[in-house]
Amino acid sequence: MQKHKIISEKKTTFLGYILLFFMSIFIITVGNIIFNDIEKELLEKIEYPSYCVSDIVDSDIKKIENLNNKNCEFTKLDRDFNLEKLYYKVILSVKNIIILNKNIKTYSKKINKLENKINNLLVKYNISIKEEIFKLDSKNFDYKKLKSDFKFYEDKRLNLESNLKQFENNRDNLILKIDNNLKLLKNNYKNAKKFYKEEIYIYNFKLGLLELIFILPIFLIILKLYFKLKAKDSKNTIIFTFILSGISFLLLEVLFKIISNILPANIIEFLIKLASEFVIFRYLIYYFLLALIITIFVGIVYYIQKSIFSKNAVAYRRLKESLCPDCGFKINHNDKFCANCGYEVKIECTKCNNKTLKDMSFCSNCKEKIEISHLDREKN
Ligand SMILES: [Zn+2]
Ligand SMILES: [Zn+2]
């Protein structure tokens, strides 16, 4: 058993871990601030065509009853596609059409109610007529009064219907009046949307590329430093582990952006739609992404740890610096055993019977392959 416990130099204190953790959070935050800056400064973002226009062109003009967007602002894209001018050419008529549509709706409802009443009267009138014909005693209904009521409602209905007709005519005239401009607006809006989609695709691609150009060299430098320190078993490795994880997070973020831009748009739209309709689904996506990122990181770290801290690699590095392959205690060239842990450093070569290092591949005297080594030790 070892008399002295060797404190691993690759670790740090609890406070150290906390500080390092906040450092990597800080790196991620600063990285995102820089990404935002790249987005704002380096590229001119293209705006979506005005939603005021979509209010009009996406609705059935014969049924439109309200506009969602009251305060309209137009951007360069709107002006480039003549959307602003066309919008102002039709908006007054559209507002009048909306009023007319509302009237048409209320009048239709009124007429409907009246028709119900008239139908009821007709039924009652028929009953009263039958009573009259068959000379039944009980006179449930006064058919003369029913007749006059019927006449009254019928006139009212006709009146309402002529009003309704008037509204519909006015509306249809208005629609006809703006028809050309409306068609133009629809067509231009469609083109503007198409243009926007292409532009935003290129924009996102450029943005992803710029961010990648920014983050990739930093990532590679840190990765190289990390491997260098790790190979030397340096006590500073832990610092670089945290820096690297912060930078890796930023790199993954950029890669995710690039990939999501390349993916077919309808898949993204479908996911966004699902996410907005089902809150649970959104959180499922968050959890999935979180799990994915953690899995990737754990996988990378596990792989690195496994290759760099295999007993094989550790023994090699320690022997190179005249340290015990097992515990890292300083050993002399001629030592057969480690003075600290008792590990058998040298064994007898099976061919020449000289003492040679157990953990190396060949005998240092006769270059015979050494079969007993750390590998056997690992199996036990
Ligand atoms: Zn030892
Ligand atoms: Zn030998």
Characterise the protein shown here.
With 380 residues, the chain is mostly helical. The chain folds into three domains: 14-262, no CATH class; 266-309; 319-380, no CATH class. It contains ten helices and two strands; from the N terminus they run αααααααααββα. A two-stranded antiparallel sheet has the order 1-2. Strand 1 (346-348) and strand 2 form a beta hairpin. Helix 1 (14-42) runs parallel beside helix 6 and helix 5 (143-231) packs antiparallel against helix 6 (237-262). The longest helix is centred in the middle third of the chain and has 89 residues, at 143-231. The protein is elongated and about 135 Å long. The model is unreliable at 1-9 (pLDDT under 50). The structure holds zinc ion (ZN) (2 copies). One zinc ion binds next to loops.
Give the arrangement of secondary structure elements.
Blueprint: H1 14-42, H2 51-57, H3 76-80, H4 83-133, H5 143-231, H6 237-262, H7 265-277, H8 279-308, H9 311-320, E1 346-348, E2 355-357, H10 374-379
Helix pairs in contact: 1-5, 1-6, 4-5, 5-6, 7-8
This protein binds zinc ion (2 copies).
Question: Strand share of the residues?
Answer: under 5%
The ordered H/E elements are HHHHHHHHHEEH
What overall geometry do the principal axes of the alpha carbons give? elongated
The helix tally amounts to: 10
Helix content: over 70%
**Could you say which structural class the secondary elements and strand pairing correspond to?**
mainly alpha
Q: Enumerate the spans where pLDDT stays under 50 for 5 or more consecutive residues.
A: 1-9
User: Termini separation (Å)?
Assistant: 18 Å
Using DSSP, what is the number of strands?
A: 2
Ligand names: zinc ion
Strand order of the largest sheet: 1-2
Mean pLDDT: 84
Major sheet attributes: 2 strands, antiparallel
Number of domains: 3
